[in-house]
Amino acid sequence: MSSPLYSREILRLAASLAGKKRLDSSNGSADLRSPTCGSRVIVDILLDTEGAVSACGIDARACALGQASAALVIGHVKGKSPAELLDASTAMRAFLAGERDAGDIWPGIEVFEAARAYPARHPSILLAFEAAAQAAHQAQDAMS
To answer: Could you state, in order of their start, the residue ranges of all structural domains in the chain?
Structure first.
């Protein structure tokens, strides 16, 4: 019997990250590690002249949960502002803590519903969201 954490959808998302890579050129990058599990996610962000994400690269060396989270981030990050990414990161943390419902935080995050009961897994899931927010703010600062 498989773990409820590693559902077919989680594994599909994790596998979809194959072939994704970092950007050759970006105006913001963040490299984060989880001290709990050792997962590492590097996110590169390129903002357009309007301050929205125009490109995102990623290198996720994480468990299936961290890779699935990275796949969701990279799949829906284009067009988001740094403020929207920070809001999503904060909301994702609250969702995992059971403080709010999935609502409209980010497309597809309901796949992590079972992970809410496993706080030790939250840092890996949060890495991609936090790295994207940090990279976008660094990109915004670089453009100022």
So the answer is: 8-143
Could you tell me if 96 and 38 are in contact, meaning their C-beta atoms sit under 8 angstroms apart? no
Q: How far apart are CA 15 and CA 111, in angstroms?
A: 15
**DSSP code, position 119:** G
Q: What number does CATH give the domain 8-143?
A: 3.90.1010.10
Q: How many CB atoms lie under 10 A from the CB of residue 29? A: 17
pLDDT tens across 94-136, in order?
999 999 999 889 999 999 999 999 999 999 999 999 999 999 9
Over the stretch 51-100, which tens digit does the pLDDT of each residue have? Answer: 999 999 999 999 999 999 999 999 999 999 999 999 999 999 999 999 99
